[in-house]
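Bumping my old thread because nobody answered last time. Still need a sequence for this structure:
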């Protein structure tokens, strides 16, 4: 497909500090006490800075998809911050789970994942209204093939959890790999929207999320994003069309707290 026929999908994850795997949701990585200024409902001071920074950026942006963690709707302040942006019709809401549990890092638990995703889906749909989209991104990118069937049964049509780099294969669960995840999504009727990567010496390197800030990866990632930034933005029908070629980039709401709230995605 010609470069002019490709489309760019801008996505952002809503994680607060308390959602990070180092603090909760992971069987091995969650070993650190939550910072004193973080609570289990209201946005952390750092996220509040990120929210302000995102609002400034969004005021001049086109359509953006926010993968939202449902338990953040426990905060009235967070909901009130989102509502004016929903009213613009330019902010789509999709699911980033209920509590940001890293499901694929644990033993297979279809029943538990189903129950939690049902809760998240109901809350996000009721809050978002017309902004809701049946699209999913696995918390912290931990996605295993067994999760595809649950997503399909609950009405999801797009998954955007695959970071197709061998460096992160561990996030697919024991004995799995990215190809198995992609095949499972396809077999269950979902469109998989993989994240942008960059091939260097035959190795696919991450270009999204934390890669934007890692010492070795950030300059590579920035150049990769800038090379795609002139593409037209993807519509809903583009994103849900398995034949459409979509360049998917993502960053975090917390990123907007960097540089005293002045950080911007390299677009």
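Sorry it took so long. Here it is:
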């Amino acid at each position: 497909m010609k470069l002019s026929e490709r489309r760019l999908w801008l996505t952002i994850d809503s994680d607060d500090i308390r959602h990070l795997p180092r603090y909760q949701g992971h069987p091995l990585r969650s070993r650190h006490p939550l910072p004193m200024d973080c609570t289990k409902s209201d946005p952390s001071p750092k996220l509040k800075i990120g929210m302000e920074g995102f609002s400034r950026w969004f005021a001049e942006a086109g359509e953006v998809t926010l993968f939202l963690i449902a338990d953040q709707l426990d905060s009235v302040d967070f909901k009130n911050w989102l509502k004016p942006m929903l009213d613009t019709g330019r902010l789509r809401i999709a699911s980033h789970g209920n509590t940001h549990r890293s499901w694929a890092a644990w033993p297979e638990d279809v029943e538990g994942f189903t129950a939690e995703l049902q809760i998240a889906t109901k809350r996000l749909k009721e809050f978002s209204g017309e902004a809701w989209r049946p699209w999913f991104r696995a918390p912290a990118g931990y996605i295993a093939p067994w999760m595809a069937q649950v997503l399909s049964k609950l009405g999801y049509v797009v998954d955007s959890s695959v970071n197709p780099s061998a460096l992160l294969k561990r996030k697919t669960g024991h004995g799995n790999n990215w190809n198995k995840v992609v095949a499972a999504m396809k077999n269950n009727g979902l469109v998989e929207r993989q994240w942008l990567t960059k091939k260097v010496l035959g190795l696919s390197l991450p270009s999204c999320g934390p890669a934007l800030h890692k010492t070795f990866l950030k300059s590579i990632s920035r150049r990769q994003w800038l090379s795609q930034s002139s593409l037209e933005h993807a519509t809903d029908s583009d994103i849900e069309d398995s034949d459409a070629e979509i360049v998917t980039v993502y960053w975090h709401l917390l990123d907007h707290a960097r540089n005293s709230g002045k950080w911007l995605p390299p677009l």
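The helical segments are 45-58, 76-87, 110-128, 147-153, 178-187, 218-228, 236-240, 258-261. Let me know if any region looks off to you.
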